[in-house]
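Quiz preparation item.
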């Protein structure tokens, strides 16, 4: 049994699936790095606006 995924036009081979997956994972990593640049600012804004909440990344207090 061959490892394929079917698209509208033709099936994809395992190598093409792996290549597409690698591209998606690279894009995801790049997006995470871009987001990381902003997280400290977001947390600072959150703590300024809602200081009693305990933090941007912490779990809500019960």
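Solution:
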């Amino acid at each position: 049994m061959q490892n394929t995924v079917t698209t509208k036009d033709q099936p994809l081979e395992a190598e093409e699936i792996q290549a597409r997956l690698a591209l998606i994972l690279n894009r995801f990593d790049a997006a995470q790095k871009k987001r990381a640049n902003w997280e400290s600012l977001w947390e600072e804004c959150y703590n300024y606006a809602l200081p009693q909440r305990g933090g941007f990344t912490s779990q809500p207090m019960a």
